[in-house]
Amino acid sequence: MRVQAYGARAGDKPLEPLQITRRTPGAHDVQIDIAFCGICHSDLHQVRAEWAGTQFPCVPGHEIVGWVAAVGAHVSVFKTGDLVGVGCIVDSCKHCDDCDSGLENYCDGMIGTYNFPTPDEPGWTLGGYSQNIVVHERYVLRIRHAEDQLAAVAPLLCAGITTYSPLRHWNVGPGKKVGVVGIGGLGHMGIKLAHAMGAHVVAFTTSESKREDARQLGADEVVVSRNAEEMAGHTKSFDFILNTVAAPHDLDALLVLLKRDGTMALVGAPATAHPSPNVFNLIMKRRTLAGSMIGGIPETQEMLDFCAEHGIVADIELVRAEQINASYERMLKGDVKYRFVIDNASLAG
Ligand code: NAP
Ligand code: ZN
After folding, report:
1. Is residue 116 domain-shared with residue 52, that is, in the same domain?
2. Signal peptide span per the entry (predicted)?
3. Do both 144 and 228 map to the same domain?
4. Which atom of ligand 1 lies nearest, measured to the CA of 159?
5. pTM of the predicted model, to two decimals?
């Protein structure tokens, strides 16, 4: 099936309308008409070949929501018309220890929603900046939010799970002091989720203009990280810091804010390395510097249900396909409140 999409033919070229092919649904496949797709900073890293190995044409997009249009003969859980989502994973080996544990995100055979090998044309996966997608039922999520919230649910499929998973893994909850660094797509979800989990949340931003917003999102305190005095006020006080920043920066300034046995988890994936932190900042208080990548399928469903229950969605700006390139430029300037979401109906022209 030929469908309209938006993607790039080279790393130094803007995204443009493209026609792509989707496979005919197999026995375990779900075909989804995509209503909305969020724009993640990872899309920009990949499509501009900032990360290694981008295949062109590249169609990004892994914050996908829409309706089931068709199901294969052996699909019993989903039916035509269901409201569903697809995040960053469309396949995995299905039999390793990670897959058996519901941690498909750490399976060595994980197939990402775009730019991963597939037998389908053209040989690598093509993402959600497209009219529809065909995905094995295991990687399809059920959406329980009201249908009129659908556009604002899309970012939960990456920004939501990428922040929810580490917050849960490091036991964020009542009595814990938690920092969220970088108030973009991921960071704004991190604030909302940590707040809903009952933690004391401190937002770290480089943008003075986001101070009030961060409070509205659920932060108990806001620190403008360029201000050394404000930073010093939080020395040795955090149980956990979630760092979502998309660019290399000084990690020591944040590590010293952790108390004994505290952890800072990096989820931001800048194209070039951070300067190495000072080892003594880790040794002296037995601090941990960690990382985390999206989340598994069961946990993604748990996160979606948690958000539906707590009335949590992303703060979004809806854009048309022809605004994607301009949206990338605005995202680079930190000028997004707080996630761009594509109205996929605009792909039809
Ligand atoms: P985003 O919307 O662009 O937000 C990043 C935020 O980082 C900015 O809004 C800004 O917040 C802060 N920042 C500070 N200095 C910056 C600089 N020099 N350049 C860019 N940002 C700066 O991006 P996102 O979609 O949240 O993604 C954040 C990072 O996470 C990206 O690297 C992305 O690839 C990565 N990611 C990782 C995973 C994973 O599984 N680990 C999943 C999704 C995305 P302030 O204005 O508040 O300072
Ligand atoms: Zn993403």
Report:
1. yes
2. none
3. no
4. 43
5. 0.98
